[in-house]
Amino acid sequence: MPEKQDFEAHDKTLPFKGPEAIDSGCLECFPYEYADAPTGDTLEIVTTTEEFTSVCPFSGLPDFARVTITYTPNRHCIELRSLKYYLMSYRDVGIWYEHLVNRMLEDLAAAVQPRSMKIVIECAPRGGLSSTVTASYSQEQ
Question: For a tag site, which of 4, 28, 113, 131 has the least CB within 10 Å?
Fold first, then answer.
């Protein structure tokens, strides 16, 4: 059986940034004027990009993914320009998709404080394997 590799030791030799480089401070929101309207809790906003990249923390190679952010706003909506800058801040970050989806959900939910939110990351195939990773948040939790 092959020897188990030490991911932590391997990570330190690769030229990429750590998760501290993710810029959640650039996220901006604007007031949602229909929060108290009868339709306020049924509106769903879906934002998708196929231009998401980060770095594999094991190989240092770029990872590509489709990111879908779905949320029901409470009092605020995410301003899309700031969301684009936030997503671009992952570009040189070495992070596992399983950690990335949770970090993204934490950052976006903290910024917009939605009624509910779901992040879906569809990873581009590598070596014939593709993965879809999902994380969800609800105010009721």
Answer: 4
Under a CB-based contact definition with an 8 Å cutoff, are residues 53 and 90 in contact? Answer: yes
Amino acid at the residue 80: L
Q: Would you say residue 4 lies in a domain?
A: no
Provide the 10 A C-beta neighbour count for residue 65. Answer: 24
> For 80-100, what is each residue's pLDDT tens digit?
999 999 999 999 999 999 999
Q: How far is CA 134 from CA 26, 53, 72, in A?
A: 23, 17, 16
Residue 123 catalytic? no
Question: Could you tell me the pTM of the whole model?
Answer: 0.86
Catalytic residue among 11, 23, 26, 56: 56
Question: Among 29, 63, 77, 107, which one carries the catalytic annotation?
Answer: 63
Domains identified in the chain, total number: 1
63 is catalytic: yes
